[in-house]
Structure formats: structure tokens, C-alpha cells
Design a protein that fits this description.
The complex is a heterodimer of chains A (about 220) and B (about 1100). Chain A contains eight helices and no strands. Chain A is an all-alpha fold and about 220 residues long. Chain B is globular, with a radius of gyration of 35 Å. Among the domains of chain B are: about 30-430, Alkaline Phosphatase, subunit A (3-Layer(aba) Sandwich), CATH 3.40.720; about 655-765 and about 835-855, no CATH class. In chain B, the strands form two sheets. In chain B, strands 4-3-5-1-6-7-2-8 form an eight-stranded mixed β-sheet, with helices on both faces. In chain B, strands 9-11-10 form a three-stranded antiparallel β-sheet. Helices cover about 55% and strands about 5% of the residues of chain B. The chains are: A mainly alpha (about 220), B mainly alpha (about 1100). Bound molecules: zinc ion (2 copies). The site of one zinc ion has 6 residues of chain B, from loops. Chain B: Keywords: Endoplasmic reticulum, Glycoprotein, GPI-anchor biosynthesis, Membrane, Transferase, Transmembrane, Transmembrane helix. Chain B: It is a multi-pass membrane protein. Chain B: GO terms for molecular function: mannose-ethanolamine phosphotransferase activity.
Chain lengths: ~220, ~1100
Amino acid sequence: MWDHEIRAMASTNAIIVASMFMATVIPAVLVPDFSVYGTHLLWLYSVSGTVTAVSVAVFWLLGITPPTKKHTLGYKLSRLFRSCLYFFLSCLFFHTVVVLYGAPLIESALETFSLAVLLTSLTTLRCLCVLGPNVQAWIRVFSRHGAMSVWDTCLQITVACTVVGAWVGAFPIPLDWDRPWQVWPVSCSLGAMIGFLTGLVAAPAWIHYHRKQLTYKCK
Amino acid sequence: MKALRVLFLLLWMCAVYFVGIYLFMSGFLLVRLEVNRTSTCRDVLQPGQEPVDFCRVQPRFRRAVLLIIDALKIDFARFDPNNTAPRPHENKLPVLQETVSSQPSHSRLYPFRADPPTTTMQRIKGFTTGSLPTFVDVGNNFASSAILEDNLIHQFGQEKRVVFMGDDTWENLFPKKFYRSLPFPSFNVKDLHTVDNGILQHLYTTVGDDWDVLVAHFLGVDHCGHRFGPDHPAMADKLTQMDGVISVIGHLQNDTLLVVMGDHGMTDTGDHGGESQKETDAAVFLYSPAPLFPGPPSQNEPDVVPQTDLVPTLALLLGVPIPYSSVGQVLLPLFPPHGQTEGAVGGLSQMEALWINAKQVNRFLETYSSMAKDIPPESLSQLKDEFSRLSSDYLMTLREGRPPSPELAASLQAYLTSVRDTCQATWARFNPLKMAAGLAILALACLMCFILSELSCVLIRENGPRLKAPVVAALTVGVCVAVGQLLTQAYIELAWCLAAAAFSSELLFLWRACQSRKSAAAKNGTKAPKYANWLTPRHLLGPSLLVPLLRCASLLSDSYVIAEGRVVTFLVFSLALYIPIHLNWDSLLLPPSHDPLKSAGLLPSPALSPLTVRKESSTLLACLGLLIGSLYLSLFFHGCREEQGSCQPSPFLSPLSRVQDSQLKNLNYILAVVSLGLWTYMVRCCLRHYGNLNSSGGTVFTARWILPLLSVCLCLHWAVSATSEDSFRNLAELISLAQLALPRAAFCLLGLGLFLIWLDPVTVFVKARTGASARALSLPPPRYRASTGISPQAELHHLIPQIYQRMRLSLDDGELSGGHEEDSRPAVEAYGLGTVYSAPLLLFCGLLGIGLQLLHPEGMALSFLLLLLEMGALLHIHASSITLHNLHGTFSGFNVPWTPVVLWSLAATQFFHATGHLPTFPSIQWGAAFVGFPGGHTGTVLPASLVTLNTFGAHILFAGCPLLLFWPLVCEVRGSRGGKAFGEEGEDAVMEMRLRESPQQFSSSLLQLSTRYLFIHGAQVFASVCAAAILRRHLMVWKVFAPLMFESSGFLVSSVFLMIGVTLVLRVDVAVGHWFKRLIPDASR
Ligand SMILES: [Zn+2]
Ligand SMILES: [Zn+2]
């Protein structure tokens, strides 16, 4: 049962990694002058759109999302609406945090917001997929004994890696090297992306390695 | 408590740090040997045929006028006729350009490049001696001492009458060298006119009088820059005035040379001192009524004239010897080419001048290399070979009687340039041995500080001569080294004695610390893991220590040094966000959900009420919001370095007297007054809230009267200093009196307040109650219970009546012995006992803060308010997280964890920037030296200390870090009140009295807190020292050098004020002890 779940998670992660790779390669073929630095926002939205679509699809198909209590259409719709609302609120939240961290307030608001969208689609969206629109559960997951399944542990690892990656991505900005990837927000989004990928790869490995220590309460 | 032990340990720790810093500095600060020889006319320069060189021919000019316009930037001197809308500093000196274009063979205008540091005294030294500056002289601007090296003024003075007027720095640099002199005070930068008008009064009467060399140094432009910046109408007026001055051109005679020059430039804010091109590029304008140049400007004119080049040029033009240690190069265009010397003008030809110049430089090089061994031998021999080749070439051409080729002139010039370059490279000379020793001592000191903080309990607990041995060892080794030096070298080098002493004591301490750890582990096995786990990577690489590590690493890169203010804010913000995340990770932030599915065994929380936890968490989050808000707002108060191209300095940084729009001025003033009022109100409010304003001691008097009076004083002072001089002409005298009296009154009040706090720090109000009511309240156990009573200010606060445990016990004893007196025994209520330690400290900080605001520009009051808010937020966050830990039963003792200490000490650096300071020399706010002393100073101690207080204001306020120890106890009421709901009915909030209950823990926690604070600052010093050592040959050594100076001075100030804070706490402790002694017999009577 254990190995089965870990395998499922590893393949899910592999699918997401592959889709992110495709999201970079396909526009490069289709769109003229496409480059990660030059047309950064295009790349950014292509990746976050793909990650959103693929994660939603995969998690839906696997049925990870906690089952809804009622099966009425109205309830499902309101759930969908709440998810969208949370998604948007989380974008605003990340935007605020990034501005507080020192991003320009007005000058490149679009770039900052795009970074916020990327961060949301890498972190909050996963929370939405795994836990549903339930902030209490989100807060609960990020505590030492809060994980209740393999998926929760994976969520912890990927979110932490993404956030730390974005944070570390801000380090090269003040350096006077004049490289194209030092332009705001390229290094941060690259950092977040690399962190996310690392998290996706590391999570199954870490869980596999620690599977003896991990004990979960049943859901 | 073991007060003295704590104090001595801290003192010793600081002393070791200071020795390390001193040692490193003495190896790092560059030193150049001064050659104490002077050139004379009779000197024989080898090789050559003529016996005398310097005074061989009739000089070209008999007289010279040197007009030095301080900070005359090259941009000011240029004139652009196409510029239709010139800014205040542009196109204001048309006379220069007009002369250059109308009389091209009489005049030239060149950019005049100064060698950094671009401070006035260094520059005067540079363009009179012709030598290059070293670091040692930086900052000597306060106390200029006489120049001992050979210099132009000395050479002129041998046979000419030198008349001087202007900046009195000259009088100090060249005492008794002038035939006549009219010095004017230079230090008061607010004064734009005294010096200039003084010169102008005498200049025109002097011209044509008895003089040969006239030196006039105008300061108005520089002071105008410092006060208003270059883009101010006052600058336009000043430059127009200078334009008029330069028009003395018309009065000159044919045998006179006019030199108009700036000693340095200025940045866009009007400051100088650094090495940016805006600061180094001044202007030099040369003119003579007789033709000076062979023709109009040609191709081979120099683009930029180095400042040292003026020295040999002027010397040879006026027929005096070139100063001995000059490394300058003659300005060739001022000398006629070979073959034209036969004209009426006389003087040396280009080739002859170069030849004399080269021989003089060669002579200096030989003398210098025989005295000091710091020039690398290979480059020295290379230069020597080059010179002998050139001299044989030159002598050959002379012998053959053919005109010297232009190539020879070019190679002579190249030789002179390479000598200059070699000197420049060499005099950036370091003593690597001392630097290494300083680094080692500092590294060990940091390690020791860390160990001390981790082992503080053991150190305090164990009886034994823990500190005596290292001190004795230090003394012995130091004396031994001194004696050894005496025996072998016959002189003592203090630095090495200190180094040996510090090193030995450090090693001994480390060894003993290791021993004691082992013994402590052996003695009680249960405690072993507690002390054993402090060096594991997991412990070291946690975010709370990772953040200071990043901060230290950032000092190694000049990009991060430039962005230091933002880097620190970023790190503080990151660490602040980490606190709630970490609490949540430990499941402490939220009350445990009563989910039946969750196991109850995971969280042992008997006394846990969800309500309390929720309240505590929301306090924490609210304070976090406040912290983040003030962090973000503090970014708006930053100054700008010149390297940050598009940066705009904060508008609050300029003093109100600079603001021209009167409406804006009023608004700024109101803002400043409101924030000052809020500051005062908040400090008072906090004291009143905890019942510390009820008694009638000195501290309470200070809080009640001196604190508000001080702020009123400050408001009035701001109002007076903001009024422009023109608006109230008839009140001018009153205003100048007020400018003198108000700040001085504020200083006196501040001193009085601090003294009173020191004298009588106890702020406890005792109220005796009659036995009846006491009995009514607490009959069953005949003990003294706290009760809410009516105090003089009862309606304003909740008072915290306290009973001290020991007192309670002793009273109980008394009651046992004399049980029948029960009825008449008075109950005791003590208001403010719970905050008896923190109240004086808080008041101390509040008073000092107002005093520091006095030294800052008015707009900074807002930033200081943010500082206070951030301090409060930090304290509350710390208190809440401790309470949350306590509620979950996971925390014990008073120990302050790393995270709040790191936040606290980084906040000091953050507010160093947010109060408009930068770690660069030109950004030092010299204006602070004139607060209360508008007429300038006579000594140097007072202005230096005022400027230091201004620069390190944030460090001083954040040195009140013992507050971190007290605050969780101060905030205890809230926690325990909730706790009461669960049980322990009889337990009162004891607050800071807990500290008295366990004095040992108190001392160890205090020691731990202070050493942790010192460790973080010390680590920053260590990092900046490392950066300076690694990057010492870096092109931008000034950028690397300046943070080192600022970090070390910041550490110095922090440690001194930390000691003051700790001493104050200990003083309070003693006073409280006395208070109890007085009280107990009273009460049990
Ligand atoms: Zn100057
Ligand atoms: Zn100046």
C-alpha cells in the first residue's frame, strides 16, 4: 500500500515535471523570438498555466482531493468558486509579501503580479488540489505532526522548496554583473521554479527513504 | 545575583574585541613615512653638469595669486552658452570661459583631479607637498596639525612674502609660515559668509601692496553645498560672488600668475570625502596678463591635471625649489618649447623643466627607499634603470648640442608617471602580520562570545576563579612579551603586547570552558545533553543563525555593501516571517483542535485554554503586522550612495531650513512634532500602564516632568532653527539666542534626567492597608495578597499590586512568631513592583531617544517613531512567543532565544540606515556638531562625540537589549490571568519579581543575552574586517574600508551602551534590594 502510494506520487510528479518542460519547449517552437529571459512573462504564464491545468487534471483523476460531503451541483459550484477566490486572494497575498520584501511598488507591478501568480500556481494551487478550499487544513498541514498522508508530506516539501527557492532567487539581484537573468523578476521566478522542481523530485525520494519513520493517522 | 561577575565577564569580552580591532586597524591603516628633508636652491641634483638646478635661471613670474575656492567643481567652472535654462550651479562663472576664449595664450581651464580622500585638509596637504595621501590622516579634519614635510608654502616663505587669508585650516597646517595672515573660522558649515566676506574686505586693498604670493581660500561654495546642496539659489549667489572675485584679473601686473582652483568637487547632495569622480574633479584656471602659453589650446594638452602636478609647476615658474617629497610632474604647456626660451619672458624650457623635475623625483625616490623598505625592490630597480637610461640619453644630446627629441620628453613624462603610480600602489601598504593577528583574535573572540552565551549558566553557577585565571594569564604574558621586546629590540610595541595578552587569555578561557563543560556533563548526567548539543550543524544552521551569517557574508561583496540598508531590511523581514511559521510548525500558534481523530497524547497541555492561545497568537500576529509595517515605512528614510544611480535621497533627510516651500515646511514641522509627541506619550503611557508613575522618586520625577519638558524644548528648537534668517530680521538676536539656549537646555535636562534615573531607579509605590480590609480580602491563609486598590492615578491604568515572595515568607515567619498581632498588621501593596527593572531602562531609552532626535534633522523624528514602534513590536512578539511556549509547557527559564536577539541587533543596523546614515564618510551628518553650538567649537572632543552620537543613534537605542529579558515577564499578566481560569487560584502575577526569586538564573540570562547581542555585532565586525583584509588591493578599497570603520565604531558604541544598560539593571537590582531591606522591618513591625 505504501509503495503503491509513493509510486503514484512519483509518477504524478514526473508528469508535472514533464509538462513544465513541455511548457518551455513548445512555445519556443511556436512563438518566434521566444526566450526565457527576453519574453519572460510569456514563459512565466505558459508555465504557470500548464502547471495549473496539469495539476488540477491529475489530482482530479487520482481522486486525491478530499471527497465532497454533498454531491449537489450547487455545492460543487460554490466549492469551485471558493477555490477560484482563494487562488486570486493568494495572488494578492504573494504580491503584497513580495512588495514588502522590497519589490518596486508601482514601477513593475505587472512583473510582480506575474511572479505572484506563478508562486500561487506552484504552492496554493497544490494546497487547493490536495486539501480543498479549507484554510484551516492548510495551516494544519504546515506543522510538524500535521501531515496525514503521503500527499501532505509531499505538499510540505514542495511548498517549502518553492518558497525558499524564490527567496534565494532574490539574492543575485543587487549584484552588479548586468546579466539578463538578474532583471526583476527573472531570478526569483527561476528560483521558485527550480525549487519547485527540486521539491517534486526530492519529495518521493525523501518519503521513500523515511517511510519507516512516517506514521500517518488515517484521514 | 552575581552582578560583578557578569559585569567583569562582559568587560573582559569587550576588551578582547577592542584589542582585536585595534590590532587589525594598526596593520590595515596605511602609513607613509614622511621624509623630513627640504629642498634648497643650493641643492645639487645628480646627474648633471650644472651645480645648481632649482634656481638656475631667472624665474618666469615674480608673484602669484592663488585663489582657492573650496569645492569648486569642474561643472561649476564650465560655461555652456547654449544652455538657456541653467540650474543654480550652472553658467555662474562666465569670466573663466570668456577669458579662455578671448585670450587663449594667456589662460587655460583644466579639470583638476584630486586624490581621495577628498577632504579639505588632505587636499591642502596634497597640493602643497605634492605627495599622495594615506588613510591615516582621514578624520583629522577636526584637529589639523602642522605639515612637517617640505612644501610649497615653506619654499615660498624662504625668500618671498606669503600673504594668506581665508580658511583657518591653513594657519594650523603652516604655523608661522606666513608673512601676514587673516584666518577665519572654517568649521561651522552653516556660516556661508564670514570667511568669504572677510577675505573680500581685505583682498582688494592687498592687491598691489607688499606681497609676493597671495593665498586666499574661500569656503562659501563648500559650505553652501553642505548646507543647501548645489541646486539651491544660494549656490547661484555664491558662485556669482566668486565670479566677481575672479575679476581681479584686471588688476594684475605682468609678472603675476593667477591660479584659481578648487580643492575638490562635490556630490549631488553637496558633500565630499569619497573617491567618485564628482568629488575628485575640481577645476583649475591659470591666467597671466603676460602670454603664458605658446599658443591656443592644441592637441597635446592634458585632459585632466592631477592635483600634485601643480606643485613642481608653480615651484619652477616662480623660481623656488621643488618640495623634496613631491611626486608631481610639471605641466608642460606652461613652459615654452625648446628654442623659444630666448624670448623676453625668460624661465625654463619644457625640456629643462622636465629634466629638473625628473632628477628631483629620482632623488626623492632614492632617499625614500633608503629610509623605508616598502617599495618593492623590483619596481625600484626598474625605475632606477629607466632613469639612468634617460639621463644618459639627455646628457648625450646636450653634449652634442642638438635639440632633444620629443620622444625623450615623452619618456621622461612616462618615467614621472610610473614613479607616481608606483608610489600610489606602495603607499597602499599593509602590515599583514598584524592584520592576521587581529583577525585571529577577533575570530577567537567571536567563538568565545558564542561559548559564553551557551555556557552562561555553568559559568555563573560554578564557584571558582573563572575569570581570574585568564586575566592573570593575560597580564603575565603581556608583561613577558613587553620585557622580551625590551631585551631584544630596546623598545616596546604596545600592539604586540596587547595581542599576546588577549590571545593567551582567550586560549586559557577556551580550554577552561571545555573542561568545565566536561565536568558539568560528568557531574550530572541529566544536564549533559543540554550543553552538548550547541555545536551541532543543526543548531548552527537554523534560520536564526543563518540570517546573521548571510548578513556577514553580504559584507564581503561591494554590491551588497552598497545596498546594505535594503539587505538588512530584507533579512529582518525574513526572520520576522519565520517566527509565526516556526511556531505553527511546532503547533504552538493555534489551539489544538479538539479533533477526536487527533491523538491527545501529542500535546501535553493541561493548562491550555484555546482562548488564551488565540489571544496570544493574535497579539503576536498584530505585532508582526506592526513590525512589517514599520520595516516597510523605514525604507522611505534611507539616504543614497553615489553608486546608486537612480536613487533619490529621502526628502526628510534635509533639515527644515533647507526646505523652501513654506507650506511643505509647516507640514514637515507638524509631522515631526506629532511624532515626537507620540514618542513621549507612548513612553509615558507604558510606564503609567504598569503603575510606575505613582511613587515620588527621581525616576518618576524624570518621567513626569523632564520627559515632556525635553520634548517641548526640542519642538521649540526645531521651530527656531527652521525659520529662515530673512523672515524675522528684527528678531535675529532673539533667534540666535534661542538657537544657543534651547538645545543647551535640552542637553542639561537630558543629563539631569539620566542622572536622576541613575540616582534613584526604583519606581515602586507602597501603600499600606489596614488590617481589616486585608483580612476581608484574604482571610483563610493569613498571607498578604495583592489587591486592586485606589492609587493617586487609579483611574488611568490597571495597577499591578505585587508581593514579593521572600517578603511574604518572612512576614509569614513574623506572623508565626507573633500571631496575636494579626489584626493590627498592615497589608502591603506595591504598585509598579512588577516592572521595577524594565521601567528605568525604558525611560532611559526614551530620554536618550529624544536627545538623539535633537541631533538629527527634524524629519527623522518620524523615523525614530518607527524605531520605537518596531522596538515595541519586537518586544511583544518575543513576549507572545515565550508565553505561547509556556502555555504549552515547553519552555522554562528566562533565557532569550537567538531569534529575537538577532532581530534586535539587526534592527540596530537597519535603523542606522533608516535614520539617514550610510557607511560612507561624506554622508556623516556633521551638522550635529553645531546643535547648541552654532558658533563652532574650540576643542575636538565635544563635536566628535556629538557626531558619534548622531551617527550611531540606532545602535545606542537598541543597546537597551536587557528589555528583551524583561518583557516576557512584563507581559506575564495576560498569560497568567488566562491560566488562572484553569487553576492555581492563589498565584499572583509576580512578573519581574521572578528574577529576584532566582538571582542565579537572572544573572546567567542577563549574561547570555548580552553576550548573544555582542556576538552578533562582533560577528559583523569580524566579517567586515575579513572583507577589508581580502579586498585590500581592490580598486574600491574606500568602499570596503568605510564599512569596516563604521562597523567597528558601531560595535564600540553598542558595547559601551550595552554595558551602561547592564550596569543600570544591576544598579536597579541593588536598589531594589535596599528597598526590600527597608520595607521588611517596617512591615513586620
Ligand atoms: Zn574643501
Ligand atoms: Zn566641505
